[in-house]
Amino acid sequence: MKYIPNALTIFRIALAPVFIYVYFSRIPNNHLMALSVFLLASLTDVLDGYLARKFNVVSKIGIALDPLADKLMLVAVLGSFHSDNLIPAIIFFFMLSIESTLIAAGAMIYFKEDLSVIPSNRSGKNATLSFTLAIILVFFFPDSIISFSMVVFATMLKTIAFIGYMKEILRSQNA
Hints:
By secondary structure, the protein is mainly α.
């Protein structure tokens, strides 16, 4: 049981390129299949966190890899949507820069001598949930104002979470 949460997280990391492959493939119902890959990743995200807490097997590497898996999948999905003109370039590149900054900052903190990490917080979890809903909406209603509005809303929540994380990162660097 000790290694299952981390194995699920690594599985989620591997699902990001699978999503891209399936999304752009010529297999029948490729977008529905890609959505299934995304939903599988989302389910394993919930499952690995639940198992880690329930069996008290939370690890520093798991705390570091879990948000990386989320970021890779989000960038994969948003990049695919941007490529299909389902979201504007500004949203994709803005989110790419936020996620890249968080990955770089997280890696710098993690690889310090003490291997510390900044754990997720409520605003980050809310942003992730909002993006999950937005992504599902874009798959089912690609040209809808509701889908677009949800993507914008999720981007705003992610920006708020990003500011909070950056404040925490700066605070930890000054401590």
